[in-house]
Each structure stands twice: as C-alpha cells, then as structure tokens.
C-alpha cells in the first residue's frame, strides 16, 4: 500500500510546503493525518537518529530524492485517499494565498485575481463532493476532526479571505505559526466584542473624524495632513494601548510621520485641543530657539488602561519620514535597560505610510538588527496607514516592486495582518493579536491598515488631477464612522440617534478646547522616569573636573590589563597588553588606545555607564582600542571573549561595546534615541572611517545638530570620526569637517579635534562630569594612534583638563616669533617635524583643539602672547573649499581676535570637488606643499581679506 501511495505525482515539486505542513500536523497529533501518511511518518521516525522532534528537512528531501528517481507516477491508491490529501492541500493553500482573495480594500477597486489553488476544482472536487466528510488536519475551526467539504471551504474563506487576512506561513518557527492559527481559525478571524467595546470603537472613530472636520472648517487652508479616510488608525492605537496595558506593558514609545499625527496627539495621547488650536494660531512662537511645525512635534502623557497606567511618548519627527524609527528603538532600548532589560514592559509602536515603509531603506536596517544583542528590543508593533496612494503615485508599479507594501517585513520572519479599515472591529482584533504575539514571542508584528486618503497629500492639493477614478469612489464613500454607526444601529447596539449625539457632544467640547473623553492621568508618578532637570537650561561651558588621581589611574590600568586565567591572547595583542601594563606603571608614555580606555574605565568606576557601538569598535578599525580580547583557543561565544572594562570593580556602571551591523543611519539613529532617554551614560557611535557619517547624514542634520533648537531635546551622544590625510584616497581621508562646521550655531554641539591621548581622555570624561548634555563630534586620528610623538603621561590625565587651545610646546622665544601657524589634528605633527628638521626659530605652532564652540578667550590670549608675530597662518590638510577654513572665514572667529597689525593667511590643498586625491604620488606632492607652505613665503597663501 505504501509504495503506490508515495508514487503519486501530486505529492511532489511545488507541493513541498504542503508536505511540511502535513508533517507538522503529524508531529503534534498523529491521528490528525490519514492512515497512509501516518504509516509513512511512523517509518521515518523509526529511521536511525530520528526522534519525535526530527527536523522537516529530511522529510522534504526524501520526496525530492524520489522525484529525481522518477517516482512521480504510479498506480492510484484510491479516490478517497487522494481527495483527503486534496483537502489538506487546499487548507494549506488558503493559509498561504487566502489573503489575495481577502476583502481588505474599502474602495473595492481591484478585481479578485484568479488563483486556481484556492478553487476546489483544482484538487478534483465537484459539487457532489461538498457534502462529503473529510479530516480537517491541523485546521482549528472546530473541535471535531472531521467536517464536510462545504463547511471546511466556508471556514477557510471566512478565516483567510475576510476583512482580516493574515500572512504568516513563511515564518520558520512552527510554534509561532500554530499560535496564529490557534487564535484566528477558531473564531474565523471574526471578533465577538461585547456591546460596550463596540461603543468604545464608535466613540474612537467619532473622535477621529470630528476633530479632522473641525480643524478643516476652523483653520481653512492650513496644512494638517488629515487622517480622514484612515480614522481606524485611532481605533488601532486604542486597541494596542489597552491590550498592551493588560499584558504588562508600562511604557509605549511611538514613532510616526505627518499623516494623522495631530489626531494621535489629541485623541490618543490626550494633548489639549486648546493647545493645538493655539499652535494653529501662531502662539508659543518664542518657546524654543527655532521650534518646529505642529505636525512634527512630540508629546508624552500617562493614560489609564485595564491593566494599569501606561506612559505614552510620541517621538519628535522630522520630514524624513521613516528615520524616526531607529530613534524610537534606541529610546525603547534605554528604557528597557533601566528595567534590567525587561522587554515586556516597554513597547515600541511605529506608524508608517504605505509608500515610505516600502520606499525608505532605513526600515531594512532596523529589521536587520531587530533580533541582535545590541539593538533588539523584543519586537515592535508596526502599523501601516495604507491609503493605497502613497505620496503622489496611484499605480503600485511606480511605488514598489512587491505585491504588498509590507513585504519588506518578511525578511524578519514577521507576521503581517492585512485589515480593512472600514471594519474597525477587525482592526481592533488585529492589533490585539499583534500585541499578544509580540509579548509572547518578542518579535516584530505588522498591521497593514488598508484605508484611503480623503483629501490630497496636504489640504491644498487637488487629488482628482492625478487620481480621478480613485477619487470618484472616495467622493461616494460615506466614511468609516458612518458605516460602523449604521452597523451598530442595525444590530441594536446603538439607538438611531445615538451616533449623531456623540458627534454633537464632541464638537461642544472642542468649542471649549477640551476633549470629550480625556485619557490622561494627572499627577501620575513613574518609578522609572529619568530625571533630566540637572541638565536643562544650563549655559554652555568648557569647564569640567576631568582629572583622575594618579593612584586611581594606576589601579584602573591594572584592571584593564588583567586577563582571565588560562586566556590565550594573540601574540600581537599580547604585546599591546604588556605595553599597557608598562604605561599604567608610568614606565612608558600612554598611547591613544590606553588614554581612551582609561577614560572609559574611570567613568564606569565613577558610576557613568558607557555604550560604544560601530562596525569594528571592539577592536577598533585601526586595531588600537582592544576593548574586547579574544582567546585564541576558543570561540568568542564559548567564553572566548574578555572585556576588562566590565570588571573594573564591584558595583561599577555598565560598559557595553557592540560591533554593529553594517549600517550607519540605522545604528546612529538608534544611539541618538538611546542618548535622548539616558543622560547618565556616555553613548558613542564610532564610524569605521569618518566619511561613513555620509550614510547617516539625515540623522546628523535633522536630529543631532538641530534637535535641541527644534524640540528642546537634549542628548549627549558622541561621534568618533576617524580623519586624516595619509594617502588612502577620497573616501578614507576626510570626515567632512566642513559639514559639521556649517551646522554649528547656538551652542548646539561641540566639534573637537584632540591630538593627544590626554586630550581624548579629558574630552570623553568632560561629556559626563559636566552638568551639561550636548552632542560631541570628535575628529579622531588614524596614523596618530601609534605616532611616537602623540603620547601623554599619567600626570597629564591626573591633573589636566581638556585644552581647547594648545600653545607652542617647544622652547621658542615668544618675542622672536614672526609667524603663528594655527592648525588642528594630524597635520600638527608633520608641521612640528618640518620645523625641527629645518631648525626654524621664528615660527610657533598653535593647535586649535576645539573648533566649536570656538574658544575666543583662550585663542585671544595666545595671539597676544607673540607681540612681533605679524603673520597668522591657518594651515589645514583639507582642500581650501573644505575643512574648517570656510567656517572660520565666514564667522570671522580668527580674524576678529587678531591685532590690527596682523594679517591672516590660508595654507591648504587646492580647491577640489573630491575630499582627497586617489593617487599616492599626487597626495605626497600636495602634502609636501602644504607643510612647506606653512613656513615659506606667503605670496602663495590666500589672505583672509
């Protein structure tokens, strides 16, 4: 019997997913499959090495092998057996493909596609078979194991082709698929909410629609990015928050773009309508240095749920829609760490638009690191407000290359619930399931909320110009609230006049600047709230007590060079450790790596956490840091890694170093978000090369540089950007200092170019010990990491501080100096070597170690120290149209500090469209000209005047 059963052709090729599903069913309940399949699987279980939890691959492989051997045709085992297999195949097909027949488009614009796998005739069934009983396998729509084909087909179409359609069969984990089936199939994807909850849904829809119409008539022509057509998004948020509260969530951080933001602010977070109206009317204009438009603003509040209070935070969001997502995740990660890493209590909710979620690559980045150790937050709830039009395009061929805008999430094995926005009960159910799935499996979940956009992209657009047929349908649509109100009236849940009465009540409250139902809890105290008050409204200062006692430095050095017993270092690394031991004992000058590690060690010992991430930051791109050591005889995940900075002392603050995924925008956005939520940790992102910041420029421009001016958001995030012209070509020379300088204003951040180990030690410590939280951009060296002159003593760490200006170090008579050469970074050491080689006695070299805020007082003191120096030269390696020169020239920082008898000149590479040349020989010629030019005749220099 078994041989002919296996030789039937319908079991092979594209039906492999069916076989795997059948095998999963057998593993859970052998009686749920037919006798022939059970006999075969029993034989497979008895094969050598196989147990009850045997992998699926051998099952599929065995069929594939038989197919190769030509065993794809043979005698039939009987019509009944083949029909039973057909039923199980059809169940599997609906689980995979049923969503394509689902009634999820409220506009009903698309015809149902032809999918033969969903037709009973595809499996040989006729009308006469509809009343025949069959085994339902793992299909969980009823308790009995058998049902008629008609009952099975009806249940399949209700479950997978209704207004809520799930995509999940691509998920590799069986338990997750079974969980979804166990929730959807018994109820046939149809909720049975009590009347009270249905009225709550109607109230939420009414609040959403009424606010939009109120704003539309009161503030004619003003942009607000209306939610009309997508009002069920407010129902979705209500369901997410209440389900989350009931499942142990205490904080929710929300990220979203413009559309519907004002509605979420008022109807979800409870922002006062009177405050919103004031923003429309131009009030509050003087609160921040720059401020932002109302549909970019954030908000926070505490709301009550059945499970207890939940703190809500809506993140501030710039115009680059999806870039807020990693920022939200970073903020969530920090909040979870305050709760000892409890991912169940803090939930990220990311609200996307249909065009942006598929179009902007930042989503791929965050999905890629969603399950990693350094960035995983236990999953996010993603709600896509899918108005089926995106920004301006109406044809999916022009907006994406996939069937659904949510297909990108499949890369992370994420379940997707497609739901019709005109069925708000299905929306509420989808969100409830999404939160429960996330809490159970700690994975991302997606709700694809299909709706429409009643107005144009903004309220001034006329959408009929580009989408005439779509907007004819929209013009005829009565609105989701009206449809649902009529539904509740028809079923007796509401009286005939009740829905209109809710509208009238809501409008009356809006007239008073109030909400009909305000969810906000006043005066609620949160245990894990972070206190930012010590850092708010503090004037900028360079001062900071950054020195560490000598004895403590030696103790820290000893801890940094102590390896676990039996730990075998690589010979090269062993020499580094031995060298650091000598440095810690004062027998050898400190190099850059030791100065940096001592900064971290002193901070964690002092109670400040340190988090360092980047693509190669454990070792350091240039193999200088060695914060992580690797045993040469063990794998790193098998106790083969040692991080001395985590063992400085008992009770120390945390030290975390993460070799990040190959991402700049996503990772930097994450670290910025972390820094906005955690003022007591030094949060550092290190670019592999300084130019890698190019890939994260949107985070730098729209968050780090301007977040405080726009939103009052402080963050002490630090960026380490390797920079220096060593002939490594255009992309590995320049950190694009000019871009950072152009963004300098209003003391928004610090741009520093430390040139010694002591300087990096003090500038990193300064970030934490001052009662001030400002972003820090550090232009770090490459070749200086091991330069013989770029060293410091322990005493400089013990008694010094960060020096914004470093004066001449050689013994040159100040009165004999005729020229002052100003510079920053690596070029200093080349200038110093040139002067010493030529025994020049009338030129002094001054390092500007802080480009911004420019230390005018310290600079002025240095300039006036040399009374006979009539020539002042700014010398930089970068082309003259790059680097910091243009900023200095335009702001007159250098010139206004000069005496009247002094003239300012520039020595630099010729202006260039490229950051640096790619040819080594040309680089050497240019570098030589820069160094020699600083000491030669200035007729070739560029006067500042």
UniProtKB/TrEMBL annotation:
SMART domains: Transket_pyr. GO terms for molecular function: oxoglutarate dehydrogenase (succinyl-transferring) activity. InterPro entries: 2-oxogl_dehyd_N, 2oxoglutarate_DH_E1, DH_E1, KGD_C_sf, ODO-1/KGD_C, THDP-binding, Transketolase-like_Pyr-bd. Keywords: Oxidoreductase, Thiamine pyrophosphate. Residues 590-787 form the Transketolase-like pyrimidine-binding domain. Pfam families: 2-oxogl_dehyd_N (PF16078), E1_dh (PF00676), OxoGdeHyase_C (PF16870), Transket_pyr (PF02779). It is an enzyme of class 1 (oxidoreductase). Its cofactor is thiamine diphosphate. It comes from the Bacteria. Its EC number is 1.2.4.2. PANTHER family: 2-OXOADIPATE DEHYDROGENASE COMPLEX COMPONENT E1 (PTHR23152:SF4), 2-OXOGLUTARATE DEHYDROGENASE (PTHR23152). NCBIfam families: 2oxo_dh_E1, PRK09404.1, PRK12270.1. Belongs to the alpha-ketoglutarate dehydrogenase family. E1 component of the 2-oxoglutarate dehydrogenase (OGDH) complex which catalyzes the decarboxylation of 2-oxoglutarate, the first step in the conversion of 2-oxoglutarate to succinyl-CoA and CO(2). This is oxoglutarate dehydrogenase (succinyl-transferring). It comes from Uliginosibacterium silvisoli. The lineage of its organism: Bacteria, Pseudomonadati, Pseudomonadota, Betaproteobacteria, Rhodocyclales.
């Amino acid at each position: 019997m078994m041989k002919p059963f296996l030789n039937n052709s319908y079991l092979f090729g594209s039906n492999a997913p069916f076989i795997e599903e059948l095998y999963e069913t057998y593993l859970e309940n052998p009686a749920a499959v037919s006798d022939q399949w059970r006999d075969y699987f029993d034989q497979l279980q008895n094969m050598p090495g196989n147990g009850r939890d045997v992998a699926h691959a051998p099952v599929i492989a065995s069929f594939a092998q038989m197919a190769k051997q030509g065993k794809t045709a043979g005698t039939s085992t009987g019509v009944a057996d083949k029909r039973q297999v057909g039923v199980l195949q059809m169940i599997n097909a609906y689980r995979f493909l049923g969503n394509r027949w689902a009634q999820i488009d409220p506009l009903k614009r698309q015809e149902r596609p032809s999918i033969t796998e969903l037709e009973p005739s595809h499996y040989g069934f006729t009308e006469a078979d509809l009343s025949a009983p069959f085994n339902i396998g793992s299909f969980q729509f009823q308790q009995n194991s058998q049902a008629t084909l008609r009952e099975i087909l009806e249940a399949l179409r209700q479950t997978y082709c209704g207004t809520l359609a799930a995509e999940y069969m691509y998920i590799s984990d069986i338990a997750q698929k079974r969980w979804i089936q166990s929730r959807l199939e018994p109820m046939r994807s149809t909720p049975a909410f009590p009347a009270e909850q249905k009225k709550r849904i109607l109230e939420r829809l009414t609040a959403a629609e009424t606010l939009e119409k109120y704003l539309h008539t009161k503030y004619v022509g003003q942009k607000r990015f209306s939610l009309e057509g997508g009002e069920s998004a407010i129902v979705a948020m209500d369901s997410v928050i209440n389900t989350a509260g009931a499942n142990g969530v205490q904080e929710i951080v929300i990220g979203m773009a413009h559309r519907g933001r004002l509605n979420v602010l008022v109807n979800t977070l409870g922002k006062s309508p009177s405050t919103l109206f004031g923003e429309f009317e131009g009030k509050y204009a003087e609160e921040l240095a720059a401020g932002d438009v109302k549909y970019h603003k954030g908000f926070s509040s505490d709301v009550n749920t059945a499970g207890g209070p939940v703190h809500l935070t809506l993140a501030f969001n710039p115009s680059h829609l999806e870039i807020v997502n990693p920022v939200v995740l970073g903020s969530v990660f920090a909040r979870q760490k305050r709760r000892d890493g409890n991912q169940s209590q803090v939930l990220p909710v990311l609200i996307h638009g249909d065009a942006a979620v598929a179009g902007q690559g930042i989503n791929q980045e965050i999905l890629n690191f969603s399950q990693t150790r350094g960035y995983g937050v236990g999953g996010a709830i993603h709600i896509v407000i899918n108005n089926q039009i995106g920004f301006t395009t109406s044809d999916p061929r022009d907006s994406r290359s996939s069937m659904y805008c949510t297909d990108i999430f499949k890369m992370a094995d994420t379940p997707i619930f497609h739901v019709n926005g005109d069925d708000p009960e299905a929306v509420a159910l989808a969100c409830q399931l999404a939160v429960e799935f996330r809490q159970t499996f700690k994975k991302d979940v997606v709700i694809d909320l299909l709706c429409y956009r009643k107005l144009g992209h903004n309220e001034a657009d006329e959408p009929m110009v580009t989408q005439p047929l779509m907007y004819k349908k929209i013009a005829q649509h009565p609105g989701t609230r009206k449809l649902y109100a009529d539904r509740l009236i028809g079923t007796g849940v509401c009286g005939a006049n009740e829905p209109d009465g809710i509208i009238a009540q809501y409008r009356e409250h809006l007239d008073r600047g109030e909400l009909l139902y305000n969810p906000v809890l006043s005066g609620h105290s949160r245990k894990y709230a972070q206190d930012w008050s010590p850092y708010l409204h503090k004037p900028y200062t360079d001062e900071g007590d950054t020195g560490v006692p000598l004895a403590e430095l030696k103790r820290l050095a000893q801890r940094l060079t102590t390896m676990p017993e039996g730990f075998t270092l690589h010979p090269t690394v062993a020499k580094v450790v031995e060298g650091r031991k000598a440095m810690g004992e004062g027998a050898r000058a400190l190099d850059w790596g030791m100065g940096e590690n001592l900064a971290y060690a002193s901070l964690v010992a002092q109670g400040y956490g340190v988090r360092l991430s980047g693509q190669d930051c454990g070792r350091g791109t240039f193999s200088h840091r060695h914060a992580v050591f690797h045993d040469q005889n063990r794998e790193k995940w098998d106790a083969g890694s040692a991080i001395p900075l985590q063992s400085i002392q008992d009770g120390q603050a945390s030290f975390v170093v993460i070799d990040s995924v190959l991402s700049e925008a996503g990772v930097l956005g994450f670290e910025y978000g972390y820094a906005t939520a955690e003022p007591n940790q030094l949060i550092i992102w290190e670019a592999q090369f300084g130019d890698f910041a190019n890939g994260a420029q949107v985070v730098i421009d729209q968050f780090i540089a301007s977040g405080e001016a726009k939103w009052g958001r402080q963050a002490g995030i630090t960026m380490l950007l390797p920079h220096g012209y060593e002939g490594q070509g255009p992309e590995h020379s320049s950190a694009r200092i000019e871009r950072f300088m152009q963004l300098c204003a209003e003391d928004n951040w610090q741009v520093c170019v430390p040139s010694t180990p002591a300087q990096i030690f003090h500038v990193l410590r300064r970030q934490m010990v001052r009662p001030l939280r400002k972003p820090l951009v550090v232009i770090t060296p490459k070749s200086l990491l091991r330069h013989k002159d770029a060293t410091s003593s322990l005493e400089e760490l013990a008694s010094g501080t960060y020096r914004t200006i470093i004066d001449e170090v050689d013994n040159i008579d100040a009165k004999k100096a005729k020229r002052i050469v100003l510079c920053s970074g690596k070029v200093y050491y080349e200038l110093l070597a040139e002067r010493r080689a030529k025994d020049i006695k009338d030129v002094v070299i001054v390092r500007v170690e802080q480009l911004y805020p420019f230390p005018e007082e310290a600079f002025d003191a240095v300039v006036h120290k040399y009374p006979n120096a009539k020539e002042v030269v700014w010398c930089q390696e970068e082309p003259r149209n790059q680097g910091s020169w243009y900023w200095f020239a335009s702001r007159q920082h250098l010139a206004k500090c000069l005496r009247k008898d002094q003239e300012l000149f520039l020595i630099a590479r010729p202006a260039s469209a490229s950051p640096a040349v790619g040819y080594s020989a040309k680089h050497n010629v240019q570098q030589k000209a820069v160094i020699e030019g600083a000491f030669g005749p200035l007729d070739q220099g560029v006067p500042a005047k």
